Amino acid sequence: MVLGYFEEEKVYDFIVVGGSYNAIPSGKAYAEKHTGGTAGNCVAGRLAENPNLSILVVEAGTDNPLKEEKISTPALAFQLVESEYDWQYPITFWDRGGEKRHEAKNTRGKVLGGSSCLNYYTWLRGSRPTYDEWVKYGGNEWSWDKCFPYFQKPGTMHDKNQILDHDPAHVAADGPLTINPAVPIPLAEKLQEAWKSQGHRLNDDIYNGTVDGLAHVCHTIDSGHRVPSTVFLDGHKNITVKPRTMVHRLLFSGETCVGVQTHATNKKQSYYARHEVIVCGGVFESPKLLMLSGIGPSGADSMTDLTAISSGIGHSINSPHVGQNIQDHPVAPHAFKLKDGHSLDEVLRPGVKNLEAKAEYKVAKKGPLASSLLEMSGFARVDDKFKKCKEWREEEEQRGHDPLGPQGQPHFEFDFLPCFASPFFPHVPEPIEGSYMTIVVSLLRPLSRGWLTLRSADALDFPMINMNYLDHPLDAVALREGVRFVDEIVLRGDGLKDIITGEYPEGHVRESDEGMAEWLKGRVTSGYHPCGSCRMGSTIDEGVVNGRLQVHGVRNLRVIDASVFPIIPDARIQNPVYMVAEKGADMIKADHPALYQQKESLVERVKGLVV
Ligand SMILES: Cc1cc2nc3c(=O)[nH]c(=O)nc-3n(C[C@H](O)[C@H](O)[C@H](O)COP(=O)(O)OP(=O)(O)OC[C@H]3O[C@@H](n4cnc5c(N)ncnc54)[C@H](O)[C@@H]3O)c2cc1C
């Protein structure tokens, strides 16, 4: 392609939208060095491995996030909700049958680093059959066996204290992210006792495709600091970053994507890519940007035609799945009051213990503030309970398989936090005294799907997002049974039952199905894992991107982030996002063989000759 008519300094080999990195003066402290997005930084860092190429990363968020102690200090992550680093997306939970549940604000990272700077650190990936199902959408490249090396590739596992009883290489191999097992915090021993006493198993080896049991989780924390994705960018001088810069449109020459148009402090600017533009704006912004650029569902009330003209594409590309298929883990959080001293609430609230913890953290980067506040997660199927539910039996008969875990996947993830976890209780006042345990019950394969559309053609407007939680009646029935399952462990299990003194707030109904349905309607919230809004599919009638993550209907444009997932993983999704980013980067390299002479493949070829 001839790019002679563009100003040369604005032309890069690749442009990554949504990522970020700030130049690192050498010798600065760790907290100042490591910033960054999730998929975008990983892709940019890998593409920059050829030092002769230039990579531009455009990030809407602010720079230097780890100067902010709430971002760098692990146990302060809850304080980032509705902070200046949070996009705070207004979302409708549901709007159907004359009933609308409020516009809650959904947290996404708007900093150099995106949601990897705001998340709760846990490193999980889900189970084999779920990825094998991705093959139907993205092709054979997306089977568990093909994804497995890429789950490991982004990180390096450390287990200095030998907390885990399995091979750390299952968790991560030798990538830039440092992964550690969660450090011990209150409740774990009692929780294990209770879990076992109710007939369930302990099992830390949940990284091999089979996910079941109560596990010590691993997380992206190292030496008391958050580890976000900018570690991928360390040392790459060929990456230019534009922080606080929002991409408003993709630019096209015919149907070839040639660049992006940005706005920063009221200044418009265009940047051009010799090879490709890679959109990594996350689940809400990536589909929005496609729609703003003329790629999306067309129809009477669509703005796609209008935006197509301004992006230069000329005519709109009718891509019906853009913004559709949104999935999230709907969660039912609830909190128990504990006998004093069994949680971390006193340490997290202002007071003497908080001052002691701060001092310990300041000096040694150790203690409760260095923890993610989550040591153990449980995974389980609840077949016995589901079989007693008419709604589940009817659905099973109709589909011919378990609708919520067709190939043995766990039905639920249960997260146990030794504190009142405020981000999961947007409408419940935070208690000012006492000890608490929060249990977050996540339905791992919900049947409901949400969607988003443009609110206007203004890139600064939030999209209209309807998560459509509990649209399928079985999702609410399932969550009800998940809450009952875990409450049996907590209220009857050895160890825990003796330290529970009540609930907060009061009024959690357990016995009546109707009562629990009402309780759930007010309590269900986001698991912070939305994905799927630009899902993979082999044609434009089935998805937004193909199995190589290229956008259907145009050239030189990919989407690489949580939005391309066709089916939500049955665990938290940070590790799957990195997996997609690593795979996507390798696909780009493979599609540009002249730019990336793969040393590895040469070695393999030589080895092959020798053998
Ligand atoms: C509060 C919270 C807790 C979580 N906890 C966990 C957990 O414990 N474990 C786990 O596995 N997962 C967790 N997750 C989920 C996981 O972190 C995210 O799914 C993942 O980081 C998303 O990565 P992404 O690359 O898709 O998007 P993001 O990381 O959100 O990156 C998108 C980036 O693009 C930028 N951007 C968007 N639009 C534009 C534009 N037009 N121009 C320029 N820049 C743009 C954004 O500012 C952002 O930096 C959590 C998420 C949240 C929000």
UniProtKB/TrEMBL annotation:
Keywords, comma-separated and alphabetical: FAD, Flavoprotein
InterPro entries: FAD/NAD-bd_sf, GMC_OxRdtase, GMC_OxRdtase_N, GMC_OxRtase_C
Residues the entry annotates as binding FAD: V111, V247
Domain Glucose-methanol-choline oxidoreductase N-terminal, residue spans: 109-132
GO molecular function: flavin adenine dinucleotide binding; oxidoreductase activity, acting on CH-OH group of donors
SUPFAM superfamilies for the chain: FAD-linked reductases, C-terminal domain, FAD/NAD(P)-binding domain
Transmembrane found in the keyword field: no
Co-factor(s): FAD
Family the entry assigns: Belongs to the GMC oxidoreductase family.
Protein name: Oxidoreductase
Native source organism of the sequence: Aureobasidium namibiae CBS 147.97
Taxonomic lineage from the root: Eukaryota, Fungi, Dikarya, Ascomycota, Pezizomycotina
